Amino acid sequence: MILFFRRNKKFYTKLILLIVILFFIYDQFYCSIIDRLTTKVIPHLDQLHIYTYDTLRSPSSSKDLIVIMTPKISQYLASRLKLLDSNLSDNFTTPLLIMYNKHPYKDDLMYLTNTIKRQMLFLDINSVFNLFPSNFDPCRTKSSWWRRGKWNYQLMIRFWFKILFELPQFEQYEYIMRLDDDSQILGKWINVFNEMRNKRAVYFANDKDADVEKSLPGLMKLQQIALKYIVLNNITVKQPEMIRDGFGEDYIMNYFNNFEVMKLEFFRRHNVRQWMENVDQTHGILKYRWGDATLRYITLAMFAEKNEVLHRTDYNLSYCHKC
Questions:
Q1: Residues 19 and 119 in one domain
Q2: Residue 69 structural domain
Q3: Among residues 139, 110, 123, 106, which one has the least CA distance to residue 38?
Q4: What's the rounded Cα separation, in Å, for the pair 237 and 116?
Q5: Has residue 96 been placed in a domain?
Q6: pLDDT recorded at residue 3
Q7: Residue-level pLDDT at 221
Q8: How many domains does the chain have?
Q9: Are 20 and 58 found together in one domain?
Q10: Is the same domain home to 50 and 23?
Q11: Do residues 187 and 290 both lie within one domain?
Q12: Same domain assignment for residues 125 and 173
């Protein structure tokens, strides 16, 4: 083998040089080519349409909605949705919306429609899921976090933190429950929507957790952004103890929001929207993977009264994620 390489040394040296040159050319011109091939047109949000295959049931008049985003319809998802039917005490009155950005098979959607007892709705969010801030260059900017592609995970975060509350398709709803597609509601649950109305709550929280700088370099820049924003905008923090306890030397607390219930009116308030826009313009979500769970915690600390936030653990509601 060594003798073979020595005899062909010049050939392999030229081959390596050629590969280096080709990589340099690719690196220099790839983004320019992508810029020409991809459209820059921002879609109109009102062009998205929620649809259903359920022709037997009349359209639901519920002001509540359960939302799941999933890349794939599977038997595992169906089994989790059946648990939702059997364990959530809402008498199947709350419709369930499946959001996707890769079009599933119609047979899978029909199966869910015929299997799940509550009304099934569907929404293709591909055109808004892949949106970047107007002044952000996704091709030339390097990503610090790769999962299912260069920007997929960060775009998911941006959707749940910001885009969700801009969609006119949800204007008729007061409360939205988010569940991840690998979450399970276990045991009997109260009607959390009614409980939030009775308590005039704006958020139903899951367990607390923490993100750490060691795993997410650039995370602690969010602390600087948040504290500076509070001072410059003269914000009276509603829960100062949450801000105090939420920022450590190398970590930031979060609400583990693979389950959460949100009052849409709160997240559409002008002061909350301004804060969201400010975070979005820093590009911290994309560059440093600031999580929607962490951002949700900070947002509630800044703008929600303590009695407006309910906690799942206080109600002994059984739940698991990735199990």
A1: no
A2: 45-131+139-321
A3: 139
A4: 42
A5: yes
A6: 47
A7: 97
A8: 2
A9: no
A10: no
A11: yes
A12: yes
Q: Are 263 and 201 in contact (CB under 8 A)?
A: yes
Q: What is the CATH number of the domain that holds 91?
A: 3.90.550.10
Check: CB of residue 178 under 8 Å from CB of residue 160: yes
Q: Across the chain, what does the average pLDDT equal?
A: 89
CA-CA distance, 23 to 80, in Å (whole number)?
46
Tokens of 246: 């939420």
Predicted confidence (pLDDT) per residue in 82-134, tens digit: 999 999 999 999 999 999 988 888 999 999 999 999 999 999 998 888 888 88
For residue 47, the SS3 value is helix
Q: Give pLDDT, residue 134.
A: 83
pLDDT in tens, 28-44: 555 765 555 445 556 67
The Cα 4–Cα 213 span in angstroms is: 49
Tokens of 35: 């810029």
CA–CA dist 191, 205 (Å, integer)? 15
Would you say 103 and 71 are in contact if contact means Cβ atoms under 8 Å apart? no
The two most distant CA atoms of the chain are separated, in Å, by 83
